[in-house]
Amino acid sequence: MKFHTRKLIKPGDLNANNSLFGGTLLKWIDEEAGIYAMTKLDSKKVVTKYISEIDFVNSAKQGDVIEIGLEVKSLGKTSITFSCVVRNMFSKTTIIAIEKIIFVKIDNNERPEPHGKTIETMGFTNLKLGKA
What we know:
alpha+beta; Thiol Ester Dehydrase, Chain A; 7-stranded mixed β-sheet; 7 strands; 15% helix
């Protein structure tokens, strides 16, 4: 898993319990995964299709530095699937784990469009081929 982005937890990121607000973290994950999908599919026209169960393992507090990790799991005709782990950068404690995040390349009418990528052209040898 590659950890691409780091975030410092600031007062405005906290919930009523003084820990990181889950909605803020999910926004950061969706943004980072979207950017990663764009770079892998060579297109700015990607959308979030699906996010599986979200496992909030540990909390993050003000002053913590977290990092968002993504790993490509499969490639479909129009889609790319990642798993995600967010962890405390210093302690390596997992904050959140998401098994599956799917992004789909779309055309100008917002319909799924084949991205034309293959496992081989992307340089992945251990991926599985998806359907969509």
